Amino acid sequence: MGRAGLEAPPPSCGVTVTPGARGLQGRVGPRPQSLAFRGNPPRASSPSASARCRRRCHTMAFVTRQFMRSMSSSSTASASAKKIIVKHVTVIGGGLMGAGIAQVAAATGHTVVLVDQTEDILAKSKKGIEESLRKVAKKKFAENPKAGDEFVEKTLSTIATSTDAASVVHSTDLVVEAIVENLKVKNELFKRLDKFAAEHTIFASNTSSLQITSIANATTRQDRFGGLHFFNPVPVMKLVEVIKTPMTSQKTFESLVDFSKALGKHPVSCKDTPGFIVNRLLVPYLMEAIRLYERDSQTCGDSNLGLGFSLKGDASKEDIDTAMKLGAGYPMGPFELLDYVGLDTTKFIVDGWHEMDTENPLHQPSPSLNKLVAENKFGKKTGEGFYKYK
Ligand SMILES: NC(=O)c1ccc[n+]([C@@H]2O[C@H](COP(=O)([O-])OP(=O)(O)OC[C@H]3O[C@@H](n4cnc5c(N)ncnc54)[C@H](O)[C@@H]3O)[C@@H](O)[C@H]2O)c1
């Protein structure tokens, strides 16, 4: 799709708006007669009366102009205050999270455009979505495989792909960004999209650790910018953290909450604080697990009696994983989870928080995490992380 013509977006394609509260209450702006017609009507016969009349006519014209202006600015304000019912979604980033978000949005009746940097990545994303949908269909339509096939085909048909984000956001209701966890890259993306997206379009970031405000600052639509933090794997995990910055309008926040519900998710809200709720608690736990495993090697038991054994760290990663699953009831151990989330993503988060608060022991960098990332071992997605995957 060419970019020409995108500067003038088509009228609110796919947007349904509900009347804002001000509109329902009816009165917006000042009542003109309360200023213009106070007192007795002027008598046109005497010169002073006609001068008074001219003054009053000027006053009326001025008040009328002011009223018209206030009406039009109020209607602009109330237009921007209207809740967006999201029908068309653009998801930027077709990796772990973006593919999942696109899948769930399409499966719940939204039209979706999935954007990534290359056609190869997009082909891989779509293949992953299809496989995931087949699993969903197998369960959901266990009794009726034909209906399951139709569900998969129909859902896939509502996901278009593109390698040029700017060319596809002109009529979208919502942009959900799920690209690399790097503020500069996110800022560059949103700054560009801000020029091409429709006026009503809401921008949301799926960042795990960055402040939404610092991403939104790259745009001129801070009131239509919020956080939508999904969890991995998106088709399975019920939670979405909806983030309202001090600049996010209430209507934008409500639109994002409604969208999360339309996806069948359970939204919770959180202020724009690093890590929001889940990662603020989860990431220090994951890092503490790595530190437990990293601590200096030691010999336990009595080697003279042949009972000595060597431990690298306080416990092996396998034992730490088993302990947290069987002892704490977690579905995955911390190393399994780290590999699943992506070691690159975890490193971005920890490095960012460490930079903001260098003294905090919870956010100290980890040599083994750094080493694995330097070797491009990002976890499951690259075939190796703390564990190897076939
Ligand atoms: N992995 C998780 O468990 C998880 C959970 C919640 C939130 N997040 C957040 O979601 C975001 C994405 O994480 P992920 O795990 O899906 O990463 P990922 O590495 O799997 O995918 C990122 C994708 O974005 C693409 N990309 C990078 N720059 C781009 C650009 N400028 N335009 C278009 N596409 C671009 C990459 O090619 C890649 O396919 C990050 O901000 C991360 O913090 C991750």
From TrEMBL:
Belongs to the 3-hydroxyacyl-CoA dehydrogenase family. This is Hydroxyacyl-coenzyme A dehydrogenase, mitochondrial. It comes from Gorilla gorilla gorilla (Western lowland gorilla). It is found in: Mitochondrion matrix. The lineage of its organism: Eukaryota, Metazoa, Chordata, Craniata, Vertebrata. GO terms for biological process: cell differentiation; fatty acid metabolic process; positive regulation of cold-induced thermogenesis; regulation of insulin secretion; spermatogenesis. It holds the Pfam family 3HCDH. Residues 312-389 form the 3-hydroxyacyl-CoA dehydrogenase C-terminal domain. The keyword Oxidoreductase applies. GO terms for cellular component: mitochondrial matrix. Its EC number is 1.1.1.35. Its main location: mitochondrion. The keyword Phosphoprotein does not apply. Residues 1-52 are annotated as: Disordered. Residues 88-273 form the 3-hydroxyacyl-CoA dehydrogenase NAD binding domain. Gene3D superfamilies: 6.10.250.1150, N-(1-d-carboxylethyl)-l-norvaline Dehydrogenase, domain 2 (1.10.1040.10), NAD(P)-binding Rossmann-like Domain (3.40.50.720). The gene is HADH. Mitochondrial fatty acid beta-oxidation enzyme that catalyzes the third step of the beta-oxidation cycle for medium and short-chain 3-hydroxy fatty acyl-CoAs (C4 to C10). Plays a role in the control of insulin secretion by inhibiting the activation of glutamate dehydrogenase 1 (GLUD1), an enzyme that has an important role in regulating amino acid-induced insulin secretion. Plays a role in the maintenance of normal spermatogenesis through the reduction of fatty acid accumulation in the testes. It is an enzyme of class 1 (oxidoreductase). It comes from the Eukaryota. Homodimer. Interacts with GLUD1; this interaction inhibits the activation of glutamate dehydrogenase 1 (GLUD1). Residues 41-51 have a biased composition (Low complexity). Pathway: Lipid metabolism; fatty acid beta-oxidation. InterPro entries: 3-OHacyl-CoA_DH_NAD-bd (IPR006176), 3HC_DH_C (IPR006108), 6-PGluconate_DH-like_C_sf (IPR008927), 6PGD_dom2 (IPR013328), Mito_3-hydroxyacyl-CoA_DH (IPR052242), NAD(P)-bd_dom_sf (IPR036291). It catalyses: (3S)-hydroxyhexadecanoyl-CoA + NAD(+) = 3-oxohexadecanoyl-CoA + NADH + H(+); a (3S)-3-hydroxyacyl-CoA + NAD(+) = a 3-oxoacyl-CoA + NADH + H(+); (3S)-3-hydroxybutanoyl-CoA + NAD(+) = acetoacetyl-CoA + NADH + H(+); (3S)-hydroxydecanoyl-CoA + NAD(+) = 3-oxodecanoyl-CoA + NADH + H(+).
